[in-house]
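Record 1 of the preview.
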Amino acid sequence: MANSTGYGPRKEFGSRWNRLCFDGDEKNYELWETKFLAHLRLLSLKSTILSEPPNDDGVEEDAEKNEDAYAELIQLLDDKSLSLVMRDAADDGRKALKILREHYGGKGKPRVISLYTELTSLQKAVNESVTDYVIRAETAITALRNAEETLSDGLLIAMVLMGLPDSFKLFSIHITQSDETITFTEFKTKLRSYESTEKFSAACSEDDSVMKVKARDGWNMKLSCFNCGQKGHKAVECISTTSEHREQRQWCHFCKSSTHRDDNCKWRRRDNVKQVMDEEDHTFAFKVGQVDAVLASGVREKGRYNWRHNQVLKSLAEALESKRNTINSLPLRTTNSIPALTFIPEGEKRPNYRPIRPETGQLATARDWKMLADLGQQLNFPPEIAVTTLRPDLVLWSPSLKSVYIIELTVPWESSTEEAYERKKLRYTDLAADAQQRGWRAKIYPVEVGCRGFVASSTTRLLKDLGICGQALRQTIRAVSEAAERSSHWIWIKRKDPCWA
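->
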């Protein structure tokens, strides 16, 4: 191998000169031009190649620098790029750079379409980091903006969210449902922060589980069985059949008890019931003694859960209907009205009566509230608000205020209330958007009442926002709680009746 003479650029892999060379790929042109202009900046030639030629003194000096810039440029180009500039822009660095920009970053319609296609079809790979994924998106975005295409931050955020996997579902829901308007730069920061938080949580949980398993394994290895003499378990857990006493002894491996066997373990059946019920939209609340007797009812179970849902909805609808009638019967309160002053004559006592409190809440601003409930007959969403096939449980609206409240009730297992809230809110997001386009102020209220009577905070928030407070609030919460608990108990009593649904 010949020794280096010391003349010309060094071609070793990883050298500075090798990193400045352009490989002819149009996707890498933007990065290469940035590095090339930085290289010219070190040679004091950047201002020459980017500015127009002067018309006064200094023309000869500018022409010499322009030729030097051309000489530096052609040394860093591949053969294809060199053939583009060597004939039309000989010794002219400005013109050569302009030709390269038009070729690799042109504004032609086919290239713009291909860039839009690339942007809309972005998908984050399994082992790809968020930083690499965002860089790929920004490359297409920058190319489109260089082609004088207008891209809003909201559109860019939507494109990036479409390519995220299911593990970022909670982050996508938070961004789309948030009322805060964020820029694309703020979105990138939040996305990276979410990825870092998830990685840290996963690492901590993995470390904890590994430590627990190791600790448990180490403790078992120190034990010796007095029955079979082997290490790794106790005598009460020994499954050896060498003795007659071992065959007659009762032992449960699920709850570690010697009072019964595995087949009769109530904890095992309870876990199986909860696992099956969590897969349903409306789950059963009680600890069932026989799994097969409850789960074999098939489609009939769904009708029973709908009946329980309607019983809770009926209690909630009665409270809202009573409040609506009370509000509509009152005179409309004006902001300019001055309360009357009552003077007490000298020597007389103040009359013993309670002043009437003015109505509060979102219903107090109008007197033409209407309400529909999905009970008895199929609910048809008001066509003057929006045209849809969705059937929310309750719809409360005021034509004068152009306000509508979409209320959806769920009676889930208590541990699934948060998941039910997000699922129902996402379901009616498009409906609320259609109503807002027609000039209505729409608000979605997903409410949850647990199948064992637990009233979630979303239900309390709805009642308070609509002006139900004090004793009326406590009575409504007690009514919906008792309706859920009573219905679940009735389902349990009738679990073996095939004619009841």
